[in-house]
TrEMBL record:
InterPro entries: NAD(P)-bd_dom_sf, Sc_DH/Rdtase_CS, SDR_fam. SUPFAM superfamilies: NAD(P)-binding Rossmann-fold domains. Belongs to the short-chain dehydrogenases/reductases (SDR) family. This is 3-oxoacyl-[acyl-carrier protein] reductase. PANTHER family: DEHYDROGENASES, SHORT CHAIN, ESTRADIOL 17-BETA-DEHYDROGENASE 8-RELATED. The lineage of its organism: Bacteria, Bacillati, Actinomycetota, Nitriliruptoria, Euzebyales.
Length: 252
């Protein structure tokens, strides 16, 4: 019996939301471990520093639109022949008190986080089933578990991602498809820098960090390492799990 190496050599892995801090860390880590990365974002590739564009292919697409998700996935399969892993990282919430939300802002938050994930799963999972297996890692949120301040609308979307993860894991296990989610607590991203540059309005960054016993946000590379593990052969008997990468903000 072969000993798993933990590497992703030759695996075709799709990364959505690839241009931001976490997305670029995912691309960098998965590429370093041998994956062939097909990346996408609503932003253009030129918005990422050239040295971080370590994907094999890239396309700009709004995955909140089902047709755009299908077109992107079809293009990846046409170019690479298969999809072995899907990392649903596209997202981004409108963070506000619940009464400050509008129907439009709530709809947009759900579209960015839940519909992007749903649309990509609709496009990818039938192809994975036909090829005999694959891995899906959805990016959820620790705030679903700890009720983080001003996150009710965002949690509605990410809670849907968690529920989708467990449902798909059970449904597709007989097809050799493993589905998990990573639930980060705060991640140091461009939005963290923006809020701190504005003086941390509402004290949200300070509040979020106060819930983390380790006293800091995760670095994107720390979340990327957990994603890489779930895509690897070392995680071959783990499915339907929402795994916290949270510095201890919830413990079980």
């Amino acid at each position: 019996m072969a000993v798993p190496t933990g590497r992703l050599d030759g695996q075709v892995v799709v990364v959505t939301g690839a241009v931001g801090y976490l997305g670029s860390a995912l691309v960098e880590r998965l590429s370093a471990d041998g994956a062939i990365v097909a990346a996408t974002d609503t932003r253009s590739a030129e918005e990422m520093p050239a040295e971080r564009r370590q994907w094999t292919s890239f396309a700009t697409a709004d995955l909140g639109d089902a047709a755009a998700a299908e077109d992107f996935v079809a293009g990846v399969v046409d170019r690479h022949g298969r999809i072995d892993g899907l990392v649903n990282n596209a997202g981004g919430g409108i963070i506000a008190s619940f009464e400050d939300h509008s129907i439009d802002s709530l709809t947009e938050t759900i579209r960015r986080n839940l519909w992007t994930t749903l649309n990509m799963c609709v496009a990818v999972l039938p192809r994975m089933r036909l090829q005999g297996g694959g891995r899906v890692v959805n990016i959820g949120a620790e705030s679903v578990r700890n009720g983080l301040l001003l996150h009710a609308g965002y949690n509605a979307a990410k809670g849907g991602v968690h529920g989708l993860t467990t449902g798909l894991a059970r449904e597709y296990a007989p097809d050799g498809i493993i589905v998990n989610a990573i639930a980060p607590s705060g991640i140091h991203t461009e939005r963290t820098d923006e809020r701190l540059a504005q003086g941390d309005p509402g004290g949200l960054v300070e509040h979020a960090q106060s819930l983390i016993p380790m006293g800091r946000f995760a670095q994107p590379s720390e979340v990327a390492g957990a994603v890489k593990f779930l895509l690897s052969a070392d995680a071959s008997f783990i499915t339907g799990q929402v795994i916290s990468v949270n510095g201890g903000s919830s413990m079980l």
